[in-house]
Amino acid sequence: MFAGCPFKILEQPKFVYDGKWLKMREVRFRKSDSSSEQVWESVHRRTVPSSKPDGVDVLATLHKDGKKYFILIKQYRIPMAGMCLEFPAGLIDEGETVEAAGLRELKEETGYTATKVLSCTKGKQGLSPGLSDESVNFMIVEVDGNAPENKNPKQNLDDGEIIEVVLVECDRLLPYVELICTEVHVESMLYAFALGMNYAQHFL
Questions:
Q1: Where do the Nudix hydrolase domain residues begin and end (predicted)?
Q2: Average pLDDT over residues 166-191
Q3: Taking a C-beta distance cutoff of 8 angstroms, is the pair 18, 4 a contact?
Q4: What's the pLDDT at 94?
Q5: CATH code of the domain made up of 53-199
Q6: Hey, where are the domains in the chain?
Q7: Are the C-beta atoms of residues 135 and 42 closer than 8 Å to each other?
Q8: What confidence tier does 195 reach under pLDDT thresholds 50, 70, 90?
Q9: How would you write the chain as a 3-class SS string?
Q10: Backbone phi, then psi, for 185, in 5-degree steps?
C-alpha cells in the first residue's frame, strides 16, 4: 500500500468514517530516526479502483465565427460555500474510459459535442495530495461551434447540479480570471492554467 514510503507505518491504517461517497482514513507513522508518532488523516472516494483516476477535467476550445473560446462552467459548490469557476469535469464511471467520460461530461455539463480529442494525460494527477488521493486526467478537445450539433447546445444535468456555461476568449483568459476571482472561487487548476498561458506568452 505504501511502496517506497520513507516513514515507518506503526499500525494498519484504519477508516474512521465510511459514507456513501467518501471514506476517511487515519495512518499512524513516524520518521525512522524519531520516536515521535504522527497521525495523517486523509479522504478517499469510494467510486473507482485505485488503478485508475477518479475523474477527468476537460480543456475544451470552442471555434466559432472566426474566434476561439475556452468553454468553462460556473456552479455553486457547497464545500466552498460559494460559486466556483471551473473546467467541465466529472467522475469516470465503472468500465468507462477516460476519453469517453470526458466527452460525456462535456456534453452533459455544457451541451457541446467535441469535434476532436487532441490529447489526454497519462498516469494520475493528484488534486490535493496532502488531503486526499483523489486524482484526474486532463483531456484537451476542440469543439466546432458552427457544427449543427453545437448550434443550440442543451445541457443534461443531474438533479444536484445547477451549471452556467461561460465562454471566455482564449487570449483573455487570465484577465477574466483575475477580474472574476473577487466574486467567485476560481478552481486552482484553471487559475494555474491561465497563469501558465500568460507565462508562456511573455517569458518563454
A1: 53-197
A2: 97
A3: no
A4: 87
A5: 3.90.79.10
A6: 6-43, 53-199
A7: no
A8: very high
A9: CCCCCCEEECCCCEEEEECCCEEEEEEEEEECCCCCCEEEEEEEECCCCCCCCCEEEEEEEEEECCEEEEEEEEEEEHHHCEEEEECCEEECCCCCCHHHHHHHHHHHHHCCCCCEEEEECCCCEECCCCCECCEEEEEEEEEECCCHHHCCCCCCCCCCCCEEEEEEEHHHHHHHHHHHCCCCEECHHHHHHHHHHHHHHHHC
A10: -80, 125
- Residue 39 CA neighbour count, 13 Å, CB half: 7
- The widest CA-to-CA distance across the chain, in whole angstroms, is 67
Query: d(Cα 204, Cα 198) in Å, to the nearest integer?
Result: 10
The one-letter amino acid code at 73 reads I
Please tell me the predicted confidence (pLDDT) of residue 49. Answer: 64
149 Ramachandran zone, left/alpha/beta (phi>0; psi -120 to 50): alpha
Question: pLDDT tens digit string along 131-143?
Answer: 999 999 999 999 9
Confidence of residue 48 (pLDDT cuts 50, 70, 90): low
Nearest to 143 by CA among 81, 88, 61, 71: 61
Phi/psi for 173 (5° steps) reads -65, -55
Neighbours of 9 (CB within 10 A): 13
